[in-house]
Amino acid sequence: MTQFNDSFVRCINDPLFLDQFYEVFLASSDEIRAMFKDTDMGTQKAMLMTSLVYMSDAHKDTPGLLASIAEKHDKDHLNTEVSQ
Ligand code: HEM
């Protein structure tokens, strides 16, 4: 767990981490790029950073938070299931 936390802290303290994350993620598929075509990526990066912090703490508390993020991404909402 210490190793995970140390690594996570190094990532979130590096301003290039999310830029590079979305660069690789968006380059990985046309389908994914299309999903984010109207997205304000500055806001999106801030939101993902917050979500990652919550996720790294999810074993301790806030169980409802992950469920609500999962619901937002499911078939009835963002429908992020990407075909292979
Ligand atoms: C660790 C995994 C992920 C986390 C924690 C996460 C978290 C989030 C959060 C918090 C939002 C904002 C929801 C809101 O508006 O209230 C969001 C939006 C979104 N997510 Fe994710 N997400 C993840 C993975 C993915 C993946 C794998 C995809 C697509 C393949 C995806 C596609 C989207 C899209 C299209 C939006 C909407 C962007 C917009 O507002 O225009 N997400 N995500």
Give an overview of the whole structure.
By secondary structure, the chain is mainly α. The chain has one domain (2-73). Helix content is 67%, strand content 0%. It contains five helices and no strands. The longest helix has 16 residues, at 41-56. It is globular. Protoporphyrin IX containing FE is lined by residues 32, 35-36, 38-39, 44, 47-48, 51, 55, 69, 72-73, 78, 80, 82.
The structural domain count equals: 1
The ordered H/E elements are HHHHH
Range of strand content:
under 5%
Catalogue the ligands. protoporphyrin IX containing FE
Mean pLDDT: 88
- How large is the radius of gyration? 14 Å
Helix share bin: 55-70%
Task: Please give the alpha-carbon distance between the first and last residues.
Answer: 32 Å
User: What is the tally of helical segments?
Assistant: 5
Structural class: mainly alpha
Uncertain residue segments: none
Q: How many β strands by DSSP? A: 0
Regarding quaternary structure, how should these chains be classified?
A: single chain
Sheet of most strands: none
Shape: globular
Write a brief caption for the model.
With 84 residues, this protein is an all-alpha fold.
List strands and helices in order, with pairings.
Elements: H1 2-12, H2 16-27, H3 30-35, H4 41-56, H5 63-73
Bound molecules: protoporphyrin IX containing FE (HEM).
Give me some keywords for this one.
5 helices; mainly alpha; binds protoporphyrin IX containing FE; 84 residues
